[in-house]
Write the structure tokens for this entry.
Amino acid sequence: MNKVTITKLRKNGTVWLIMLYSLLSIMMVTFSLYQINQQEVSILSRGLYESNPSTFTVTDDEEPIDWRKLNKDDAYSIFVEIEESYRGFYYQEDTYSPPMVSGRYFEEEDFYNDKQRAVIGQSVSEDELEQIKRDGYEVIGIMGGSYSSPIDEMILFNIDAVEEGNPIPSAVYVLNINNGQLSPDHLNFNNTHISVDSINRGDIGAERFLGTENYQVITGLFFILLLFCLSFFFIQYWVAQRKIEIRILWQLGINPNKPYKDYVVSLFCITSFPYYLMGLISFFWVLQFSSNPQHTSMHTQNLLIGYGLILFSAGLSILLSYRKSRKYIMK
Amino acid sequence: MIYKEVKESIARRKLFTLFIMIGVMIFLTTVTILIQSYINIMQKEALIDSFEGLNVYQISDTLLEDDDFQSYLNEPNSLERVKSLYEYLEDDINEKFIYNFEQPIEMSTDIDDIEEEFLQGYEEGNPLPPAEDEDGDLYYSLKAVQLNEQAFEMFPVNLSEGTSFTAEDFHHANNPGVIPILLGADYADTYQIGDTLHVNYLFEEFHLEVQGFVESDSFVTSPQLPETYLDRYIIMPAQEFEDPSDNTEEEFQQRHYFQMINGAIYSSEERNVVEEEIESAKAAADFPHFELMGYSTTVLGDFFDAVEENIYWVLCLSIVLLIACSLSISTLMIKKIHDNYRNMMIHLISGGTMKSLFQYFLAEVFITVGIPGAFITFLFMTVLQDLPPLYVLVMAASVVGMILLAVIPIYIQFRRLTISMLLKREE
């Protein structure tokens, strides 16, 4: 690229636009990291429970329960509180995976496979660890984040190993399910009902005390609005610079469709290039430095949503400019 | 003159001026939300500030076997010595002694009058069934927490209405048979200030007088139960009693005081220093059956870490947002001004100077960025009344930052340009 081309790009606004979209991309990457980490603090401070889980005891505790057959279409995780920091655990399809110090978290093959598997927190004592091993459990991973949280003292077992088919009498079950709050008096089990007593525990953990979650939601909404508006305005500016060019082409007999098509292509490249660059850099950064493997998939998801938002706002902006210029030309 | 020029320039490109103003307003609103978020976290942290860096040592009597316990009670002055130990821990020890115990109280009530959430054991899926006395009355166990004066001062327990405990409330002789209580926020629909509850506490009858309600999400902590939210609790001041008048009362006081000495020491000192203090207490009270248990833990470590994480990310996001948005908006501003260069040439031809041109641009930037900035700041200062001076400072800094980021590049360009270059469109 020689000096003339650079000057030309600078003058026609391309360099400006790339710089502006780089700033937007940095904002999106930071917001994604903010959101991922806030979500992690939120769920770890609740000891892996969601903010509004279904808590219950099983009324009829003599019937065997196979938690795989819980008749729900969504992914869910279920915990049973055995003693102070001991819990049985099962998940179907998908679960929040905590940051691990070593080893791995549970996977589907660990359940209902005649196995005895345990995941322990990073502060669990050697004595307790030895006792777990003596009881026949294989410790597959140690969980813990870079900050202290209730999971540090926790010991999780696969639920089939602790229940051996029958629900534990008077134990409290906690069910995380994605489609919001449920207050079941019974749970569906492949067309049979298990009757349960719901417990309303209220919120727990540091996040209850801090009360930051409302702020996070509002911050998120305004951030999206900001991103949308800035992207929209940038494109309006950029297209406005080309108003004269379009008029001249029109007078030469060239339909504005042609230049606008070119603009769409240029803008797609201009908005995408910095975003891909920032996205890739941040992706590798998260891969390298995060203690939670789930963060890379969450970050990718957020980046895709951000990309969609940017493309949508840019697209809307250029569409409106196009319509305006057609209306003006038709006059 | 400048004002007229600026007004005309803005009117000519109304839409783009509007874009910049909207951008500034949304940006500053987002900054306001982040500042509020930060203030909220700092206010919450201030509530638990006194715990930072402290270790908690659990202390306990060693008369765990019933035989040992009974044989101690048969010793002369057994009750006085336990009382003396408690008084030493309360008043004389050089550390914070916190007594925070969850002894449920028994109340004879119709189950329809009391919600299940208030019963002891509800959250564990095991609400205690009612006990029946010889008259056939059913007594339900309600969740209650007893706090000594130091605990009450140290924990973030603030009132939403009513009066707090005073020093007199911790000495039962000031109002025999009556214990003033505070109720958790969830009790607000069930009781009012001035109501009296007739209850059994450790098998002794008392009247509990409601004198206030605590704010929701108030909590207390202990080594056994790191976080207990008080919303569903009855909060009682730990009572010190005068000498018992009969055997029944003596037995009650024995149960009560033996419970009260099983508290915790919150200290920044090393374990050996705390052990020495405990030895002094034992010697002063002539009560040797007492020790520091196990190992110490950091108080509310999870909470402080959560605070730090939250603050870190709020600050990160704020800084990136401030820099990125300021640069973006300033860039839009600069582009708008550049588009105006051609129009300004008329002034140069008619005898205007570069200096006056620059003044027009400066004024335009001021108005386009400054007006929405001032508007948003005053709006939020009116709507959210407890914003600190920090808020105005940050808002002003953001607006000034945006103005400078726009003005400085233009100024630099102007210094480089001469009138002739501008007229020849060589900018």
Notes: Chain B has two domains: 2-47+304-423, 54-298. The two ends of chain B are 25 Å apart (CA to CA). Residues 158 and 177 of chain B are 26 Å apart (CA to CA). Chain B touches chain A through 53 residues (CB under 8 Å).
